[in-house]
């Protein structure tokens, strides 16, 4: 499991803060993760052992997708605390002047963040993030 945490997971999650995860992408990431966990435990698919049992054996509480979503929320909080003249904050708050194309609106990174914030508020899960000075941590519920 040390190899997974130090080599495989960072490679798998590189740049994940900027991803817009669709359900198809989440399934693929979970499949890669479970494939590695099965191989590391030397369990084949023919043994019909459920993913939850493999997670318990490997002591993996959170999935990689959950870790990606957490990293996205942390990045969002980091950018929101930036001063207004910084480019990441400008890009986050940018609204294009032209009209969007016809059809169903594309799911954006920001809409995914807002959805996760709403789910977090409904579950009353406090989110831990650093204050502006990043010296003391504050436990707050995102508003």
UniProtKB/TrEMBL annotation:
Superkingdom assignment: Eukaryota
Q: What is this protein called?
A: Endonuclease-reverse transcriptase
